[in-house]
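Input structure tokens:
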């Protein structure tokens, strides 16, 4: 029996707006599909329209399939033989776990950075943190936040930390600080607390502040996902 055709909904897919050219076609497909789910274009239980996604992205169906395999590993979709890929309902606990695990990794990176970094790490982080205090532009803030986290990871001199972070994909498509209300304030307070703890020579407190900041961001993501109806009913 031939597999079922893709449903008519959604009638049209939006054009991609945030797919960097440097990404592979499979990565572009996974990011685009994640965005469709996050924006509610694709709802839990719906089949992912692979042919239309390939057409919108001007790629073949093969990288779309690669993107879906990656999304299945992340829990966004389920691929069923001869039927296609279907959007999963997300779980609030899984979202919180993702951000708390990130906090643990970055907290560990902070400990290693302090132990292994050259002199001047705290001054470098403090300079980034001051710039974060001085901007309200979500794009600029995102770049500064990435710079802060990258500085910690690079100073840790740990290839294993980099491998773990590369395997972790952000749950929010697009600019996190545009999409998640309150996230800029949480990041500002968190990075300030981290720098203050490092200035005081209290690396345990700095790591704890990192974990607390990312746990709080996870709470905000849960709120955003609940508002968008991305979680299954209790």
């Amino acid at each position: 029996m031939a597999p079922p055709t893709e449903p008519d909904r959604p009638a049209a897919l939006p054009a991609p707006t945030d797919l960097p050219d440097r990404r592979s076609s499979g990565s572009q497909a996974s990011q685009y599909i994640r965005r469709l789910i996050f924006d509610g274009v694709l709802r839990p239980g719906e089949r992912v329209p692979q042919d239309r996604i390939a057409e919108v992205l001007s790629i073949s169906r093969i990288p779309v399939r690669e993107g879906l395999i990656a999304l299945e590993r992340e829990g966004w979709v389920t691929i069923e033989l001869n039927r296609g890929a279907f959007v999963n309902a997300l779980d609030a606990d899984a979202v919180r776990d993702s951000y708390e695990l990130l906090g643990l990794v970055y907290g560990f990176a902070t400990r290693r950075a302090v132990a292994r970094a050259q002199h001047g790490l705290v001054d470098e982080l403090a300079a980034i943190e001051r710039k974060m205090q001085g901007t309200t532009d979500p794009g600029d803030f995102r770049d500064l936040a990435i710079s802060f986290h990258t500085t910690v990871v690079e100073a840790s001199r740990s290839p294993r930390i980099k491998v773990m972070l590369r395997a972790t994909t952000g749950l929010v498509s697009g600019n996190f600080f545009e999409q998640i209300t309150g996230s800029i304030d949480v990041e500002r307070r968190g990075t300030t607390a981290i720098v203050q703890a490092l200035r005081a020579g209290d690396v345990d407190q700095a790591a704890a502040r990192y974990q607390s900041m990312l746990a709080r961001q996870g709470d905000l993501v849960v709120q955003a996902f609940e508002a968008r109806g991305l979680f299954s009913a209790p």
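The first strand starts at residue 77 and ends at 80. The chain has two domains: 25-87, 92-227.
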